Amino acid sequence: MMSLGEQAAAEVLRHMGPREVQELGSAMANLSHVSNDKVHAVLGHFAEIMQDQSALSVDSVDYVRKVLKTALGDEKANGLLNRILEGKNNKGLDSLKWMDPRVVADVIQHEHPQIIAIVLSTLESDHAAEILMHVPEEHRSEVLMRIATLDDVSPTALDELNGVLEQQLSASTNVQSTGVGGVKTAASILNLMDADVEAAITEAITAKDAELAQEIADKMFVFENLLAVDDRGIQSILREVQSDTLIVALKGADDTMKEKIFSNMSSRAAEMMQEDLDAKGPVRLKDVEAAQKEILEVATRMAEAGDISLGGKGDDEYV
Q: What's the pTM value of the predicted model, to 2 decimals?
């Protein structure tokens, strides 16, 4: 990555998740004094092509900062930059990402629900869901509600969190707030929990805040979740969806989703759909979202009728 140049490296990073970006960024930031022999051993033929344009001599910290901002934009990059380049404050928090869920739950389960919410919001959704399973049942719904309503975490809150993790904030005065939590995060965590636990938490949240419960529910089953539907199910859904609706929906889909759809069509139908998609001009985001929601409604209706399985929580579970 250090040999590719900022733009090319940023293009690679666009296809990685937050965890991979953070791991790779940390390694890049710590890279120094790389010998030519090591470059050749790692990069092989590519190193021979690129050796005259090697970026290994640049300031690695400045390079990583530029690459992350180019790849993710300023807003998304700030949180990662704080942890990777300036994030001495969050070492304890980062270490939780590699700990067993039961161990993390033991560390945080007696803390205030707000602290638990902040911790879970900074973790991958699947990891957070496992941890929440080990949090006392009476606290789960409140924790998820707090995750859904989180926005920015102030340095004071981070200080309290690091106290829980037996870490201290850096003396730096330019610590920025980090965006965490939100309805989407809460939905992602809840979506990965066992069905009975999910139902209990949803019921508890609905009793306290029906509007928030609905917002979370709306985010729980999104267009990308169709990747978990088997081929037979996708084919059944496609028979119920108008071509125009599908084209608009796919304008906002990634290549993996498009391939999922095309692979469940005849070669001719897939070719025509791709041609129509390429010919389609710019589409408003709200129109894409409306088309995707229409397809999701079809999928949900078919699942409720027992015609397909939406998957996601075990191959044997049907809804």
A: 0.39
